[in-house]
Automatic annotation (TrEMBL), chain A:
UniProt cross-references to Gene3D superfamilies, sorted A to Z: Potassium Channel Kv1.1, Chain A
GO BP: any one term: ubiquitin-dependent protein catabolic process
Domain of life assignment: Eukaryota
The organism of origin for this protein: Aulographum hederae CBS 113979
Subcellular location, principal: nucleus
Protein name from the UniProt record: Elongin-C
InterPro entries per the UniProt record, alphabetical: ELC1 (IPR039948), SKP1-like (IPR001232), SKP1/BTB/POZ_sf (IPR011333), Skp1_comp_POZ (IPR016073)
Domain called SKP1 component POZ: residue spans: 13-76
Entries under PANTHER family matching the protein: ELONGIN-C (PTHR20648)
Classification via SMART domains: Skp1 (SM00512)
Gene Ontology CC entries for this record: nucleus
Family in the record: Belongs to the SKP1 family.
Record's keyword terms, sorted: Nucleus
UniProtKB/TrEMBL annotation, chain B:
InterPro entries: Leu-rich_rpt_Cys-con_subtyp (IPR006553), LRR_dom_sf (IPR032675), Znf_Tbcl_Rhp7 (IPR056451)
Name of a matching Pfam family: zf_Tbcl_Rhp7
GO biological process: SCF-dependent proteasomal ubiquitin-dependent protein catabolic process
CC per GO annotation: SCF ubiquitin ligase complex
Biased composition (Polar residues): 43-54
Bias type Basic residues, positions: 91-115
Annotated spans, Disordered: 38-124, 176-200
Protein's name according to its UniProt entry: DNA repair protein-like protein Rad7
Species per Swiss-Prot/TrEMBL record: Aulographum hederae CBS 113979
Domain DNA repair protein rhp7 treble clef: 137-174
Length: 106, 636
């Protein structure tokens, strides 16, 4: 497995790219809360994303991806907290966030 | 002086019921009147008018009134005075108050007419005269706190000293007030919500998933959503569940869910939908293969006929409480669509769906693999042989209210039992003394002999099957592979004359329970043995004994409510032997106390739990730690 590991190796931060070109540098531990991203970045798969530590989402806009990233951090921060209030999501973008969340499996 | 006055003034008004009441409650009109006169006199003195020695009370009043009227605001005293039949109230005053009342009424009328506009500045002149008038909306005023000049609006807040506040200061004040008020009502609601979340299987730790959060937001703003776009079916189903739960699924919100490309629709509460809405649904989803329509009270004959015509691909139908569909319409539907129909699940049919319809159904729907009839009042035992002719049936769930002779079911099991992977017979219990109705040991034997593909078995609410019968059913030579879902709840005898129960166990008890866990323990996911009162403590200890190497790797949900023998040690054993346990329901298990719940597990209903009904596993508490904690507690 180590033989075909990328030269860059596993970084602490990964890059999430939205369809309109916004890039988000996110802690790996937070990003991997999303099941889909975790699979993309799994070094055993040898996916492009895993090698370059960079996930591009051609269906998710920067605005929505920002919200998703916000949630990922929110989730990690409150992992062991009790009675965490739901994160605020502006109603007008909820449906898009919902689609993205379903796709990313968070 | 005062004695003279009261003696001299024996004025009596008409003797009313109120006077009686006041007298009975020791409230003296004379006393009140005397107080009033005192006040009037004082006011008169302040104004420098000397008034003799006040022997002539009526005069005092009249005079005092005249003088005080412009100086002191009489408003608060008014009602008190009006209540008593004081004969000598001056005309002037009367007129004045009359005028005031008229003015007030006028003002009210004006307000109504103008929709609350406040531009009539000449009202309440008299009040304006005595104290500094409050500024009206639209006028300028200096803020009481920051002294800035601002325009008064109807929403301007009143400051601590009675003046008006500008909007930033008002906001601050409102915030403070809120902070003071909030905690009390909120805490109760918060706790209530937390409990309800837990009963919804929502482990209250960490954040909820983003999908759930979004769905809640969508449901909250359901009125503003025009369409749901291209959401996948799974999300649509989740959304429709939440919409049903919040009771916002109505003709308008239904439109969101209708898209021509769908292959089905799940609506869990159709109570607000009319016949027309169903038609629209079937017209927009012509390719629908499966429909779930619960509480479909307005699902009528015409709707049924429309569905039979339009939905040519229909395979799965779940229809609850559709009582307006006649037998004729059902037969028409089976005639047209029976050929393709694979599953039919009906609940709460009171007045239609009779035995004849079932007969027609078995003739026209040969491919039926799933049949569920629950609370269908017209279905009787004579339908059982008909159901037994459905050779492709794999899932059978019945909960009927009529007397069901056991021999017919034995016959049914011997005919189609070999195919069944689900057999669910709730309340399959006889009321006669001979035990010919309902499940008994012979029936269990028939299951043992015929079924070898069962994954789910339910035989709840039965008082005829014995422990030996269950032990035989689950004995080692049963060819059936381990089952996934077993529900043997409430298999016990209830007799008011004998509250401690019969001496010889009826229903699942020691041997049956052990045999069941031995047979299915390796695959079992859900186990419901609530109210199986005869399972002894020793059986629980043997089954859930970690030291003997027992392990139930798949067991997730256990309900052992009202099993009296369960105690803390048993629960500890369950925690240890079921690594994937998610939820343990233990209502009425009074032996369970001082439990430390490992993380990820919900323990619901332990009555002696110290703080809450539901105990959620604490973060990072492993099973061993939990057991250690429990030991310490029990030693204390």
């Amino acid at each position: 497995m180590t033989s075909n590991a990328p030269p860059s190796g596993q970084t602490d931060y990964v890059t999430l790219v939205s369809c309109d070109g916004f890039e988000f540098k996110v802690q790996r531990s937070s990003a991997e809360i999303a099941e889909a991203i975790r699979r993309m970045l799994d070094p055993r798969t040898g996916f492009y994303e895993a090698i370059h530590n960079r996930c591009e989402f051609s269906d998710i806009t920067g605005l929505v991806l920002e919200k998703v990233v916000e949630y990922l951090y929110y989730n990690e921060k409150n992992k062991d907290a009790k009675e965490v209030p739901d994160m605020e999501i502006p109603p007008e973008m909820t449906l898009e966030v919902l689609m993205a969340a379903d796709f990313l499996n968070v | 002086m005062s004695g003279r006055r009261t003696g001299g003034r024996n004025i009596r008004g008409p003797h009313s019921a109120l006077t009686d009441f006041l007298a009975a409650n020791n409230i003296s009109a004379a006393q009140i009147r005397a107080d009033y006169n005192d006040r009037v006199r004082q006011a008169a003195q302040q104004n420098g008018t000397t008034n003799g020695d006040g022997t002539n009370a009526p005069e005092v009043q009249a005079e005092g009134e005249e003088v005080t009227a412009p100086a002191a605001a009489p408003a608060p005293e008014e009602p008190e005075e009006d209540e008593f039949p004081v004969v000598d109230t001056s005309r002037k005053r009367k007129r004045k108050s009359d005028g005031k009342a008229k003015e007030k009424a006028k003002k009210k009328a004006k307000k109504v007419k103008k929709g609350g506009s406040h531009d009539d500045s000449d009202f309440d002149i008299d009040r304006d005269m005595y104290k500094k008038a409050k500024k009206l909306p639209g006028q300028m005023e200096n803020c009481e706190i920051c002294e800035k000049r601002f325009t008064v609006t109807p929403y301007s807040k009143t400051g601590p000293d009675g003046g008006l506040l500008c909007s930033p200061c008002g906001r601050e004040i409102a915030k403070d007030a809120k902070k003071e008020q909030k905690p009390k009502p909120n805490q109760g609601r918060k706790r209530r919500k937390a409990e309800s979340d837990r009963l919804d299987h929502r482990v209250n730790r960490g954040t909820r998933s983003l999908v759930e959060t979004c769905i809640d937001v969508v449901a909250k703003h359901h009125a503003d959503v025009d369409g749901l776009g291209e959401l996948p079916r799974s999300l649509l189903n989740k959304l429709s569940m939440i919409f049903s739960k919040k009771r916002v699924l109505n003709p308008k919100t239904l439109r969101m869910f209708l898209k021509s490309g769908l292959d089905g629709l799940e609506l869990h509460d159709c109570a607000n939908l009319e016949a027309e809405d169903y038609k629209l649904m079937f017209a927009t989803i012509p390719l629908g293969e499966s429909f779930v329509l619960k509480n479909a009270g307005q699902f009528k004959n015409e709707t049924m006929d429309y569905m039979a015509q339009k939905s040519k691909k229909l395979q799965h139908l779940k229809l609850y409480a559709a009582n307006l569909v006649s037998d004729k319409s059902w037969c028409n539907f089976f005639g047209l669509r029976g050929e393709n129909l694979k599953s039919l699940q009906l609940e709460w049919m009171d007045d239609s769906f009779s035995d004849d319809t079932i007969k027609y159904m078995t003739e026209t729907c040969p491919n039926l693999s799933r049949l569920k009839l629950k609370h269908c009042r017209k279905v009787t035992a004579s339908s059982i042989p008909q159901i037994a002719t459905l050779s492709n049936l794999q899932h059978l769930s019945l909960e009927l209210t009529c007397d069901l002779p056991c021999e017919r079911f034995i016959d049914l099991v011997s005919k189609i039992g070999a195919n069944l992977s689900t057999l669910s017979l709730a309340r399959f219990s006889g009321t006669d003394d001979e035990g010919l109705n309902g499940a008994n040991d012979l029936f269990l034997e028939a299951i043992h002999n015929n079924c070898n593909k069962l994954q789910k078995l339910r035989l709840s609410y039965n008082d005829a099957c014995s422990d030996a019968g269950f032990a035989f059913l689950f004995s080692e030579d049963w060819k059936n592979p381990p089952m996934l879902v077993v529900d043997l709840s409430s298999t016990r005898d209830i007799d008011n004359a004998n509250p401690t129960g019969p001496e010889e166990a009826i229903g699942l008890a020691s041997e049956g329970f052990k045999a069941l866990m031995k047979h299915s323990g390796s695959k079992l996911r859900n186990l419901n043995i609530s109210s199986c009162r005869h399972i002894p403590h020793k059986a629980f200890m043997d089954v859930f004994d970690p030291s003997s190497g027992a392990e139930y790797p798949e067991l997730r949900n256990i309900d052992l409510s009202f099993c009296g023998a369960v105690d803390t040690v048993t629960v500890a054993g369950i925690f240890k032997t079921c690594p994937k346990l998610e939820r343990l329901v233990a209502f009425g298990c009074f032996g369970v106390e001082g439990v430390v719940v490992p993380s990820g597990v919900l323990l619901i209903g332990a009555p002696k739990a110290q703080d809450e009904i539901v105990q959620v596993g604490m973060g990072g508490v492993s099973v061993d730690m939990a057991l250690g904690g429990m030991l310490e507690k029990s030693q204390e």
